[in-house]
Structures are given as C-alpha cells and as structure tokens.
C-alpha cells in the first residue's frame, strides 16, 4: 500500500517544513478543523518555494480530504440507522404528552441486521481515526528523512 520514492535533494529547512505540514494535521485534536487550516497555511506559504514542500502539502491535504469524505459516508450510513431504530421504538404518547421516556421497552429484535451495519460503520470510523494517527506519524518520519511519501487510500483531489 505504501509508496515511497528514493531520496531527492532538498534542504533541511524544506524537510522540516514538509514534516511540520504532516504533523500539523494532529492539531485537529486541539483545534477544530486544524487538520485543514494549518496544512493549507503552511502549504500555500511554501508551495512556490519548494517542490518537496509542495508535494508533501498536496499529499497531506489529499489525505485529510479523503478521510473527510470517508467519514461523511460512514456518518450517512450510521446516523440514519440509529435514528430509525430509536424513533421506531419511541412511543408517540411520550412525545405528545410530555411524559418521561423510559427505554425499558426498546425492541431491537427485528433490527439486529441493520444495527450491525450501523455498528460496523462506527467501528470503521474508529479504525480510520486510529490508522490516520499512525500514518501521519509515519509520513512525518519519512518526510524528515527526505523521502516522498504517498498516503494509502487517498483520492488525489489536489494535483
């Protein structure tokens, strides 16, 4: 799955900027949308100055955009499934008479198949986020060594 190319000639500064572009995506754990904002800022600042930084910036952004697309697809699968099952079991009297909702009578017997699909989507999302973290670290290491790294499962939005 991984694609690396041989070492190319670049300065230490270019390697550091490219590495920081990859690592800046981890800011998403502190700042919402930081995984898009910071790589875009770094990439646009240096893309005309270094082909190495330009390549790595594109790889970083394409990977993050691909993950966003995969996340949206998984959410479009999981959320309606769980909402459907919950609303199907919600007594209408509770809604209109402002009664307390008691979830004792939740019947999932006929919904095991569809709930399995929803649970699988949620597990795939968790796996995607786990793999993302380690791929970002791996790409950073490869980049700091001066190698061109291409993330797997990436759609090339920016060419």
Number of helices: 5
Q: Extract low-pLDDT stretches.
A: none
Strand residue percentage: under 5%
Helix percent band: 55-70%
Instruction: Tell me the total number of β-strands.
Output: 2
Mean pLDDT: 88
Largest sheet: 2 strands, antiparallel
Which class best fits the helix and strand makeup? Answer: mainly alpha
Shape from CA axes?
A: elongated
Give the topology string: H per helix, E per strand.
EHHHHHE
Distance N to C terminus: 20 Å
Compute the CA-based radius of gyration: 22 Å
Strand order of the largest sheet: 1-2
Keyword list:
single chain; 159 residues; elongated; two-stranded antiparallel ribbon
Notes on the protein architecture:
This protein is an all-alpha fold. Helices cover 64% and strands 3% of the residues. The protein contains five helices and two strands. It has helices at 12-23, 34-46, 51-88, 92-96, 112-144; strands spanning 3-4, 149-150. A two-stranded antiparallel ribbon has the order 1-2. Helix 1 runs parallel beside helix 3 (51-88) and helix 1 packs antiparallel against helix 5 (112-144). The relative contact order is 0.19.
């Amino acid at each position: 799955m991984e694609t690396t190319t041989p070492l190319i000639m670049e300065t230490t500064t270019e390697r550091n900027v490219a590495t920081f572009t990859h690592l800046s995506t981890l800011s998403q754990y502190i700042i919402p949308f930081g995984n898009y904002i910071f790589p875009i800022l770094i990439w646009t600042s240096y893309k005309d100055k270094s082909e190495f930084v330009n390549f790595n910036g594109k790889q970083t952004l394409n990977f993050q955009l691909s993950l966003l697309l995969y996340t949206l697809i998984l959410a479009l699968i999981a959320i309606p499934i769980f909402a459907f099952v919950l609303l199907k079991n919600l007594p209408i009297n509770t809604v209109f008479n402002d009664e307390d909702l008691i979830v004792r009578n939740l019947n999932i017997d006929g919904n095991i198949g569809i709930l399995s699909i929803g649970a699988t989507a949620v597990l795939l999302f968790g796996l995607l986020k786990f793999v993302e973290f380690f791929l970002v670290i791996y790409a950073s290491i490869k980049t700091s060594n001066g190698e061109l790294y291409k993330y797997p499962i990436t759609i090339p939005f920016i060419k």
